């Protein structure tokens, strides 16, 4: 039994309704074909299509949360951007913004952020051959940090198959640690997340609630049928004990997912029951806030699935056949 699902079924009508349309939608081939085509379109989108897409999400996010705060015309003249992303030869997305010599306000490091072992707490002698001791932009104090790294299909061939099942954890922990170690006190952090009801996501949201003002955002116009949404944390306090603990936990998870727990680690026995205890604790303290935060996100996804032509076509067809 999934404790989180059970908890939500008892308290969130939005979640129950979403589960129902997901069940209807996901069990039909129209949905599969639609999502296959959508994936193909995403992988082969032109620069103009990508620009339009990201601008739409950005504008909607700003309108809903004011978190990006690019309101004054002249802000761009003194703003500095420091970015990290995958190089093209590792399957990274093409960069849409001019940078470096062509635009000194935008610095970009092309690297695989999941491999910065020293940054994530490994000792030099523990680094594996594909890892790096670099710690990019070490002294930054950012006002606004975007963590919208996403596991890319185009990068799959370059990932270590032995670490594949931990790929999402490694990317999330990498972003969390890099971001929290480069945030200004009181700054804003925006992170792309998936499946709010998954334990990792719930835990991350509960963690941010301890040291920031937490909001969530899901665009109506793009990716609305997916489970993706954004954590928007304002007034982040990286100096709080809870924030420092979150970074240490992130380092431990990255270590386990990347090189294994090692011989001196405590045995994994009771890991399941320990996790269940943690789930119950988080639901007790954060469950109500979680439901209030996520209800609008689940409503947006459910309504978008119901509106989708592939969903309508499939339900009409199954109604006719019964
Ligand atoms: C959802 S897209 C972000 C789009 C971007 N914010 C924009 O507006 O164009 C996901 C990004 O994650 C990056 N990414 C995925 N895995 C990565 C990794 N291991 N290291 C660095 N960047 C990674 C990809 O290169 C891609 O640009």
UniProtKB/TrEMBL annotation:
Domain Ribosomal RNA methyltransferase FtsJ: 128-235
Gene3D superfamilies, per the entry: Vaccinia Virus protein VP39
Record-linked InterPro entries: RNA_MeTrfase_FtsJ_dom (IPR002877), SAM-dependent_MTases_sf (IPR029063)
Pfam families attached to this UniProt entry: FtsJ (PF01728)
Name assigned to this protein: Ribosomal RNA methyltransferase FtsJ domain-containing protein
